């Protein structure tokens, strides 16, 4: 059997610099983010005393591109990691780098960049149907360029820019957490008794695509009547840059009158099942948080943002959480009763696979002016350094 190692490849517009990456998704393990390693192939005659540099840029867009007028910008670019790429770095190589250098020859230089542990995960906010330009969100780009020093202005013709993602996976099955449960009650002015609702779930951690079974127990000890019930999975988005940048958007809504009306003295015990997924009802909804996009790959709802230290939330750009919300409608005059439960929704951590021996290499090639360069105006980019 012939084994092929899949490698992502992109060449600069002048065909003098080529970058190879073994993957474009890097896992954030809360305490450490996977290293970004790859190989850069350079034409030695093109250097002419100059040097090869690499940078990882985090781009945080918090406003519409079409609203940028008179020098106003709604994008902040942060320099997360940088360094010179030299031939002397050919030690402590990964297996992927060893195999690529063996295949590409002596002009292939390995590189490795470490991201700070508090780097935010990639996320994209769904733009409106008529929106133009880049969507709001957090994106990462790997830039390899030729210059005299790190501070040199990079020329597009000798620069390679590739989009990468920082993603988080769900904790192991042994860290599912406690079984969520909440009880809410409401008393009524000038009316005896109360209305009680208990909401509980079988677990706290769900994977994308898993059905969520919501157990609801209602005891009506008042003289009011429960007319109907609404259950929702809400995505809560907090844009940390703004004081009032928080909002909620439903990704699943279930309206039901099953078991209703619940008269005074009545009870109801039902289980409602909802499956949050990026369907037609959510895809076109403005403001829904999605996982970071790469080229034309399919994406999914953004995962819950996990933080080792909640005090560092301001550096995360956009924080995504989820909650279950159940609402009881009692009529126009009596009002409603609402209960909420937070949940964690993430992708399961993939099983680690051993790198097969390289009988051949399968390259996925990107054009020099592909979508990875979108929005990366090298002439106007301003980079702020990020400390570890």
TrEMBL record:
Query: Which InterPro entries does the UniProt record give?
Result: Arrestin, Arrestin-like_C, Arrestin-like_N, Arrestin_C-like, Arrestin_CS, Arrestin_N, Ig_E-set
Q: Which domain of life is it from?
A: Eukaryota
Q: Which Pfam families match?
A: Arrestin_C (PF02752), Arrestin_N (PF00339)
User: Which terms does the record give in the GO molecular function aspect?
Assistant: G protein-coupled receptor binding
Choose any GO biological process term that the UniProt entry carries and state it.
G protein-coupled receptor internalization
Q: Is Iron one of the keywords?
A: no
The entry's keywords: Sensory transduction, Vision
Residues of the region (Disordered) are 367-388
Composition bias, Basic and acidic residues: 377-388
Keyword match Protease: no
Please give an example of a GO cellular component term from this record: cytoplasm
Specify the Arrestin C-terminal-like domain's residue ranges: 191-350
Q: Which family does it belong to?
A: Belongs to the arrestin family.
Q: What is this protein called?
A: Phosrestin-2
């Amino acid at each position: 059997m012939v084994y092929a190692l899949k490698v992502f490849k992109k060449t600069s517009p002048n065909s003098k610099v080529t970058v190879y990456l073994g993957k474009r998704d890097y896992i954030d393990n809360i305490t450490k983010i996977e290293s970004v390693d790859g190989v850069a192939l350079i034409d030695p005659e093109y250097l002419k005393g100059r040097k090869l540099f690499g940078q990882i840029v985090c781009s945080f867009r918090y406003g519409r591109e079409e609203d940028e007028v008179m020098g106003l910008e709604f994008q902040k670019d942060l320099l997360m990691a940088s360094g010179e790429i030299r031939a002397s770095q050919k030690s402590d190589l990964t297996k992927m780098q060893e195999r690529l250098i063996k295949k590409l020859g002596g002009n292939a230089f390995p590189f490795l960049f470490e991201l700070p542990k508090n780097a935010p995960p990639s996320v994209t906010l769904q733009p409106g149907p008529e929106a133009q330009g880049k969507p709001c969100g957090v994106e990462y780009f790997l830039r390899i360029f030729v210059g005299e020093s790190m501070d040199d202005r990079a020329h597009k013709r000798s620069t390679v820019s590739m989009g990468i993602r920082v993603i988080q996976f769900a904790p192991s099955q042994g860290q599912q957490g406690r079984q969520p449960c909440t009880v809410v009650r409401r008393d009524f002015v000038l009316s005896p008794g109360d209305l009680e609702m208990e909401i509980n779930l079988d677990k706290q951690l769900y994977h994308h695509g898993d059905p969520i079974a919501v157990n609801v127990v209602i005891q009506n000890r008042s003289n009011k009547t429960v007319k109907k019930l609404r259950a929702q999975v809400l995505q809560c988005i907090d844009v940390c840059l703004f004081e009032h940048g928080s909002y909620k958007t439903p990704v699943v809504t279930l309206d039901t009158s099953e078991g209703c009306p619940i008269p005074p003295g009545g009870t109801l015990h039902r289980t409602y099942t909802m499956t949050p997924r990026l369907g037609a009802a959510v895809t076109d909804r403005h403001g829904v948080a999605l996982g970071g996009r790469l080229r034309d790959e399919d994406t999914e709802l953004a995962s819950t943002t996990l933080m080792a230290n909640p005090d560092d939330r301001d550096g995360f750009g956009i924080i995504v959480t989820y909650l279950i919300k159940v609402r009881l409608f009692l009529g126009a005059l009596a009002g409603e009763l609402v209960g909420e439960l937070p949940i964690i929704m993430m992708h399961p951590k993939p099983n680690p696979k051993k790198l097969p021996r390289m009988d051949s290499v399968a390259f996925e090639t990107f054009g020099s002016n592909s979508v990875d360069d979108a929005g990366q105006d090298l002439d106007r980019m301003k980079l702020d350094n990020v400390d570890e």
